[in-house]
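[step 3/7] fold_predict: job queued, chain A
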Amino acid sequence: MNYNFYLVDDDKSVLSILSKIIVNQNLGDIIGKAIDGEQAAMEIPKLSPDIVIVDLLLPKVDGITLVERLKMLFPDMPFIMISEVHSKEMVSKAYNSGVEFFVNKPINVIEVMNVIKRVDEKLRMKKVIDSFQSAFQSIRTLDEISSGSKAAKLDPILENAKEILNQLGILSEAGCKDIINILEFVVQNDNMSHKKLIEFKLTDLYAYLSTKYEKERGEIVNEKAIEQRIRRAIGQALENVSELALDDYEHLAFMRYASTLFEFREVRKEMDYIKRISKIRGKINIKKFIIGLVSEAQNN
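[step 4/7] structure written:
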C-alpha cells in the first residue's frame, strides 16, 4: 500500500495517532492535515489525496458537510469518517453524504488498519473495473469503425459458444447471458489471452459485468446475483450432460464436454445422484467451465 492521506480532526492528539499508524504500518504518506473543515475544504482540492480521514464533529464546517462538498468535486474519492457518535440518524446522514467507512473513537490500531485495507481493496477493484470498461469501449469503437455502424457483427466464436450452450440445454437460462457477455469480452479483447483469463479472479469478471449492465442498460445487478445466475446455469448443464450419459454413454455432447467443461469425477457423482445411488451431487467449477467453453468455441 502506498497512498497519500489527508487527515482532518480538531483533536491534535488524534491526528498524531493516525499519522503514526499510517507511517509505522507503511500504509502511505501524510500529505496534509487540518483541524477544521474550512481549512480542509480549501486544501484537499489542491492536494488531491488518495484517501481522506475526517472527523464527524468539526468546527466551522462539520465532517458531513465537508464530505458532501468534496464528493461533488471528487465523486470517487474515498472518505473514512472517525467518530464517537453512535446516533443512527447521524450515521445514516454520513453514509448519504458519501462516507463508506467508519472508524470509532477511541482510535484502535487494528480497526484503522482493517478499514484502510477495505478501502485499498475497493480502490484496486475500481482499477480492474475501469480497465475492463476501457477495454470494452475500445473494442466497441473498433467494431463501429470496421463495420461502419453501431451494430457490430457478432464474432463466429460467440456463435459457436451459443451452439454449445444450446447442446447443453441451457441457452435459455438467465446465467447464459452473463456467460456470453464474459466470452464476448474475452474473445474480442486481444490483450485478454487464455493465460490472462486463467489468472483473472472471477469476482473481477462479475464486477465488470455489473458495471457494464449499469452503464449500458441502467440495470443495477450486484456481483453476487450474477455469480448465482451463472452457477445455476452451469449446474443445470452438469445435470443435463449427466442425464444424457445415462441414456447414451456415447452421446456426443457427453463425450465432448464431460471433461472439458466439468471435472469428469463430478459428472459421475451427478450421474449417481440422478440414479439415487448417492445423495451427493456433482460440483461445478465456474472458471473451468468458462475457460473450457472459450477453448471449445475457438476450436469448433
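[step 5/7] annotate
The mean pLDDT is 84.
The longest helix spans residues 109-147.
exit 0
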